[in-house]
Amino acid sequence: MDDPPSFRHPGIRPRPSVGRALDMAARWAFPGAITALLLLATAAPFGVPGQAELQAAVALASVFFWSLFRPAAMPPVLVFLLGLLADLLGYAPPGVGVLSLLLAGGIAFRFRRVLVRQGFLTVWLVFAVVATGAALLDWALTALLTFRLLAPGPALFQAALSCGIYPALAMLLTRAHQSLAAPERA
Amino acid sequence: MIRLSIPLRQALAKLTLPVLIAASFALMLLGKADAVLAERGRVAVADALAPLYGVLAEPLGSVRAALDGVGDMFVLHAENARLREENARLRQWQSVALALDAENASLKANLHWIPDPAASYVTARVVADAGGVYARAVLLSTGPNPHITKGQVALDARGLAGRVTEVGTRSARVLLITDINSRIPVTLETSRGRAILIGTNGPRPRLAYWPEETPPQEGERVVTSAEAGVFPAGLPIGSVHYTSRNTAEVVPAARLDRLEVVRIFDYGLQGIVAPESPVARAQATAAAAAAERRR
Question: Strands, DSSP E only, in B23-119?
């Protein structure tokens, strides 16, 4: 595991106090909290067409991003709970969203050493492939679990929306990643 | 805390993801085996969020209305002319309807017609879309309301919207007639032919299983049928429309894409209510017996 940053940068360090510990904890909890908040916000009654697809897209993008850039703050157990929340909020058969989020997070974690060194375009491309796979998996599993042949239109729309929303969301999350969610700045 | 050796801890960390993936499959099986459990989870989340969404729905609705208002300003003149024309036409219809109503009342009086019992209803605000990607449903904020139960019928101002499928302490979920799992017995109003209205998740459900001699006519009104004891007869649903591929669809009268307020009617029909688990039924009977004993 990585050493705490204080060992790598010798010098004057703030004293460990209760306030600082709280600050650290808040920074560690940020990725999970922001993903849950995004899930709840996209379930709010905005009356925008395609809001259900937007919810799935936002959850996937957020889990993928944090699993890639701050995997310690997005452990699989947290992804599991977020997936469960997404399934309950999105009225999907329970377990479907859990599986696709776990797989997306797992793929990001597995290839993070390669991916973090690449430019944004490559990451986006990989995310597009992951999002398409996740949307198709959601579609297939929902069809299987409800015993109905569902039209593939919503799945393709969800995949396209995920790819489209990623740059904007990644820009915001990168800002947060470098400021709000950075434990070394506590 | 238990101190584990580093290799063991690494092995455990590697195992977490596969175990959780297996758990997600187990969750799917569990959701399939015990549908009530999944429903209870959803209802709990909906109950927690319904008041919040109820508060949010008000300002968001005002914003949407303001935006619509700006759009309406540009077509004010044309809209006015159209409404005048429509108003003149509706006045004619109103006089026809009043005459028919009077005639109907006198005929019923002559025939000693047994009137349908007046249904009681409650009105609830639609606070959120509750369909997800592969379903069509809405969430109602009901407050603590004992009058809403599963299987009751939801109508908006214009026609049938759907049926109540999940009831919580503060919220209820209405499955819309456009949902892919919706099957409604209907009557074609002019030919009196029976048919089934099948939801497709699209904006217009399609018709199926009509009698061979009375195919649905374009523009014909479609109303509910009392068959199966789920709906009372004669609730307006919409009108028939043929697609370019010659599929008979129904254009819903209710504005299902922007439902704001629905009325939940209790017609006292127990034809098809979602199956209750034997355990829950046994508990309900036991509770009723206990209440009886206490009295």
Answer: none
A58's tokens? 């936002």
Instruction: Report CA dihedral (B254, B259, B263, B265) to the nearest 10 degrees.
Output: 60
Does B292 fall in a domain? no
> Is residue A7 classed as helix, strand or coil in its secondary structure?
helix
In a domain, B200, yes or no: yes
* Domain co-membership, B200 together with B82: no
Are B150 and B98 part of one and the same domain? no
Of B41, B53, B135, the CB nearest to A45: B53
Same domain, B262 and B222: yes
Q: Residue B282 in 3-state DSSP?
A: helix
Query: Is B239 contained in some domain?
Result: yes
Q: Are residues B59 and B136 in the same domain?
A: no
Q: Which residues of A112-146 are buried (b: 16+ CB within 10 A; e: fewer)?
A: eeebeeeeeeebeebbbebbbebbbbbbebbbebb
Question: What pairing do the DSSP bridges indicate for beta strands B160-167 and B153-155?
Answer: antiparallel
Q: Which residues pair with B137 in a beta bridge?
A: B175
B40 at interface of A, judged by CB pairs closer than 8 A: no
In chain B, which residues have their Cβ closer than 8 Å to the Cβ of A94?
27-28, 30-31, 38, 41
B224 strand-pairing partners: B186
Whether B42 and B177 share a structural domain: no
In order along its 295 residues, chain B shows pLDDT tens digits of 567 788 888 888 788 888 999 999 998 898 888 878 888 888 888 888 888 888 887 788 788 888 888 888 888 888 899 999 999 999 999 999 999 999 999 998 899 888 777 788 889 888 888 888 888 898 888 878 778 888 889 999 889 999 998 888 888 999 999 998 889 999 998 888 899 999 988 889 999 898 888 888 898 999 999 887 888 888 899 999 999 898 899 999 999 888 888 999 888 776 665 555 455 555 556 655 665 665 5
Which amino acid is located at A29 in the chain? A
Q: Of the residues B77, B92, B112, which one is the last residue of a structural domain?
A: B112
User: CA of A68, closest CA in chain B: separation in Å?
Assistant: 15
Domain limits at B50?
Answer: 34-112
Pick the residue from chain B with its C-alpha nearest to A88. B42
What is the total count of domains within chain B?
2
Pairing, β B120-129 against β B261-266: antiparallel
